[in-house]
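Quick one - first record:
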Amino acid sequence: MSEITLHTCQGNAIESRLDALAHLRITVFRDFPYLYDGSFDYEANYLRRYAECPESLFVLAEDGDALVGAATGMPLAEDVEEFRTPFEQAGFDIGSVFYYGESVLLPSYRGRGIGKAFLAERERHAARHGFSTVAFCAVERPDDHPLKPEGYVPLHGFWRSQGYERHPELATTFRWKDIGEPEETDKPMVFWLKSLR
């Protein structure tokens, strides 16, 4: 990671990097398993929710001036209904949960420990602000999906190695347009949790 710099910011301090982050999300999420056919306008609006939340966190990985990776998070209570509802229905105090929005990293920068650093920075932030649980959700694609690359290995093993546990009872759907599809469809998402206590 010697040539990569990591730094964090909160809320509207991200403003000057929002466009670059929107483009990065579109690029990385085109790959399996997300297969996301994104639009810049949607991304800009999505990221603005994080920028407008004072307790949000952005962890940025930069190679010189180029944004090559980023991770985000915000209090679950401030996020959208699709992510809050499964926790509310399961009896969680959503005020105690810090939610990770995404972790995106260009393929050529993977395998250098940046993903671990993204998780660690968000855990530190969540603990510092009094959250007892951190959570994220991941799309679940069928094993026989026609666009699944040969040799594809999901990140489940990595997440487990960092102390996260898959909770299939906490599931939701989120809509986006897949590459090559005419319209948005619901995608099944399952949450992964880690206790900070």
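second record:
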Amino acid sequence: MDTTIVREAQRVAVLAAREAGALLKKLFEKLDSSAFQHKDDSGDLVTEADHQAEAIILGKIKQAFPGHQVISEESGDNRLASDWLWLVDPLDGTNNFAVGMPLFAVSITLMYQREAVMAVIYEPLTDRLYEAAASGGFRCNGRIIRMGEPRPFKRATVGWIQGHKVQQEQRAVRLRQHIDANTKRMMRLWAPTLQWSMLAKGDLDAIILYNSEGEDLYSGMLMVREAGGVITDYDGRPFKGMSKEPYLIACHPQHLPFFRGLVHNGLVGK
């Protein structure tokens, strides 16, 4: 892997995320219900802001790396054959944005041979810029953050992320209810990248993800790993590469046995 490409990609991603974020911030207060539409029967939304922010990001990537494959939330796959793959979610939290809830972010990830090697998440309303690179650490506004010693808890605060298509799956409902009943708080922000950023910063104790794959997934995962967290499947096997149907636990390494037990008991109905 060419590390000079990763460094240049990070520079481009930061510029693109900041410019797209500035646009989103400008549009946030001006959005009305006529400016968004439903994507499909799941109730997920898309706004003109998604498209405008995406155009900014894709333009900068194409200019700097015309031979790279890009998959973006609204435009789809450019289908170029390359070891390098960009994953772009120009507005993670569109539903929040559309109803006036100030919880949304820009997410840009670079993959090399299906492994995340660079990620940028930008939260425009707070001006928080999160960056990570493989073996390069996790930063928030330039400050390196590591999980360090695990924060003790009597009842955990857990981020729950679930795919739209499996919202009513009985196994998912059972697990979700179990987590909600056996933790201090189960958080669902409708903006997964913000939950991953919170875990990487130490503001959450864990994330439990139930079959939710998309352009916004791998940026936050890289940040959690670079902050010192672990990401496994429900059986404790380290998660590598990409998956169309991921079922994951992310947390501090020392807390993994606890959260594996929590998930196991939720799935079997204990």
